[in-house]
Amino acid sequence: MIRRMLVFGATGDLFGRYLAPALAGLIEAGQLPDGFAVTGAARKDLDPAAFRDSVAEDLARYAPEVSEEARTKFVEGLDYAPTDVTDDGDVARAARTLGEEPILAYLALPPGLFPDTVRSLAGAGLAEGSRLVLEKPFGQDLQSARELNALLHESFPESAVFRADHFLGEQTVQNVLGLRFANRVFEPVWNREHVERVEIVWDETLALEGRAGYYDSAGALKDMVQSHLLQLLALVAMEPPATLGEQDFRDRKVEVFRNVKAPAGPEAEKKTVRARYTAGEVEGSEVPAYVEEEGVEPERSTETFAEVTLEVENQRWSGVPFTLRSGKALGRDRREISVHFRPAERLAFGRNTEDPEPNILRLGMDPDTMSLDINVNGPGDLFTLERVGLDAELAPQRPSEYGRLLLAALGGGSMLSIRGDEAEECWRIVEPVLRAWREDAVPLLEYPAGSDGPAGKDPQQKRGDRT
Ligand code: BG6
C-alpha cells in the first residue's frame, strides 16, 4: 500500500470536508500503514503549523465522530508546501517533501488545472508505483476529456490513473450489485417487461456553500449528472459481470453507456430541464438567490438543477425511461434510486376491484435505506387493497465513501476508478445536452430556494407517488 500522499488543492473544500475526515477515520480504524504521511499543496502561502490548525478545525466540524486521538495523530503527520501547480519546480519540491517512496498524488483541483498539474508531475520523476487521483469532473467536455486521457497516457500507465467518483464508494451504490445479483426475486423482473421507469434523484438542501470558484463554471449537469448519476445508472442497468475484477466490472458499465443514445436536438429540448434557485428559506435559514452568491457570474447562466431522461437502448431496457435529476437548495434531501415496476394485472381480484398501484423499490442513500412498496389486502374488505412498505435500514457505513475510495487508490486497485473510455462515454452522453443548453434551446427556469424545484418538474409530484 502507498504510504505517502500529496494533495493538490489542500486548502479547498474537498480536502477539509471529505478527504481529511476520511483519512482521520482510516487512522482510527487502523487501516493506514505506520508512517503514513500527507503533504498538502496549494497556492496559499501558509506555514505547516497554520495548515495543521485549519485542518484541525475542519476535522472538528466535519468529523466529530472520529476520536480526538485519531484526529490529532492525523494532523500531526501533515506537512504543507506552497505550490503553484503550473510551476514544475514547485510541484517537484512538494513531491520531494515525501522522500523517495511511491506517492499518491491527489488532484483536488478544478478540472482546468489538471493538464498543467499532470505535466508537472510527469516532469517530477515520481517513484515507480506512484498513482494519480483525478477528481470529477474529468475534463470539461468530450474533447478535453480525450485530450486529458492522451496527456495522462503519455507519462502514466492506465493502472496508475485513478479517476475518482466518490459515489462508487457509497454503501448503497455498491449494494445495488448485491441486491440485484444475490437475490432470486429481483433479477427476473429487472427488465423492460416489468419495469416501467427508473428515477435516480439527488436532491440536496445544500446550496452553493462558498464553492462558486468551481461550481459556477460546472453547474448541476457536469457536477452531478455527467459523473455520479450516470454511474448509478450504469450499476442499475448493467449486465452481470463475469467477475468483480476491475476489467469485467468496468467493461459492463461501459457497455451500458455505449447503449445510451445521447439526446440530441429536439430530444434534448423535450427530455431535459434546467433551472436555477432564487432567494428563499431552506430548513429555517435564508438562502440568497444563486446569482447573488459571492463569485457567481449571472451571465454564465449556470444551472443549479438539472434533469435528464435517457434511454438504454438494448434488449433489457429499450423503451424504459431513466430520469436522472439533481438540484441544490431544495426543500428536503432526497437521495434515492427508485425502480417503478409496471402495475400488476387486476384480474386476480375480479372486475370490481381498484387497479393495484405499481410496486416501487427505493434505494435511499445517506442514510442507506431500502424499501419496497407493495399491495396487500387490508384488514377489512378482501377486495380492498392497502399499500404497505417493506423497509430496511443499513448500518451506517464505515469506512466512509471517501475512505473506501482512498483505500482503493492507495492499495493499487482500479475497480472503483472510472476507466478512461468510460469517462469519455459519459461526456458523449451529456454533450448534446450541454450544447442545447448553451444555445438556449431549453429555457433556464427558476425555483425558490427551499421549494421542490421548478414548478411541475418534480418527478414524484408529477406522478402522485407515495413520498
Ligand atoms: C459532490 C458534488 O461531488 O457531491 C457536490 O460536487 C454534492 O455538489 C456532493 O453536494 C454530494 O455528495 P455527498 O456525499 O456530499 O452528499
Describe the overall structure.
By secondary structure, this protein is an alpha/beta fold. It folds into 2 domains: 4-135, Rossmann fold; 168-463, 2-Layer Sandwich (Dihydrodipicolinate Reductase, domain 2). The chain has helices at 13-28, 48-62, 68-76, 88-96, 114-123, 142-155, 171-181, 212-215, 220-237, 246-258, 266-270, 401-411, 420-438, 459-463; strands at 4-8, 37-42, 78-82, 104-107, 131-134, 161-163, 195-203, 272-278, 280-282, 285-287, 305-311, 321-327, 334-341, 360-364, 369-377, 385-393, 444-448. Strands 16-15-14-13-7-12-11-8-17 form a 9-stranded mixed beta sheet. The chain has a 6-stranded parallel beta sheet with strand order 3-2-1-4-5-6. The protein has a two-stranded antiparallel ribbon with strand order 9-10. Helix 5 (114-123) links the parallel strand 4 and strand 5. The radius of gyration is 23 Å and the shape is globular. It binds 6-O-phosphono-beta-D-glucopyranose. 6-O-phosphono-beta-D-glucopyranose is lined by residues 204, 206, 223, 366.
